[in-house]
Amino acid sequence: MPDVKRSVKFVTQQEILPDKDSGVEGFPQRKWSVKIVMVGKDGEELPAETFERVVYNLHPSFGNRARQTFKKPPFTISEEGWGEFEYNCILTDLNNKEHSINQDLHFQQPQYENKHQITFKNPRDRLVEILKKSGNIPASLENAAAGTPNGVKRPAGDTDSAKRKKKADRSIDMDRLADNLQKLDENDLLHVVQLVHDYKTEDSYTKNDVERKYL
Question: How far apart, in whole angstroms, are the C-alpha atoms of residue 27 and residue 16?
């Protein structure tokens, strides 16, 4: 199956907290947040529903908050601190495939955005449906999502089970069948009986008449 490429956008906001002391001279305490959105085909922001969770791996100085997991778009993380650093994000898509992205947290602007291209390899099921919202997808994926692997819809009722039913509905010469059954030896006859038993349906009617009482 072909791959699908999409852009995700990390939107970072930060501001100084004037009433809080960072404890480090020349570096004020700040509040910052990061959210993740998908970028549509016209550049619009869309919910990042292609991912089921996002893990932020922050600087080790955050202690037990250095690794944080979010399971709902826009996967917003909010923290406080005074230092800039590089962090890693693991985005897990709906097909359980991970995408690793490295980001820089800096305080040069109150708000800034970073775009990253994501490649969804062999997307399927619900992921394909959501990818349609942010752009075009290959025709083969469209067909697979619709259950038509070759791009041709089957006529209603033209399934394997329907074909088997058509074969079963064909007329059978019962007299000829009875004559041929009588010519079988015991082993072959037992094999036929077993086949009848294995393939009978709710509509089948069989009768055990070993003693030939009903002849």
Answer: 10
Q: Output the CA angle 41-71-34, nearest 5 degrees.
A: 65
pLDDT per position as a tens digit, 154-212: 455 555 555 555 554 556 667 777 777 777 777 677 767 766 766 666 666 666 665 55
- Cα angle for residues 84, 89, 93 (degrees, 5° grid): 160
Please state whether beta strands 98-105 and 77-81 pair in parallel, antiparallel, or not at all (unpaired). Answer: unpaired
pTM of the predicted model as reported, rounded to 2 decimal places: 0.66
Distances (CA, A) of 186 to 181, 183, 210: 10, 10, 13
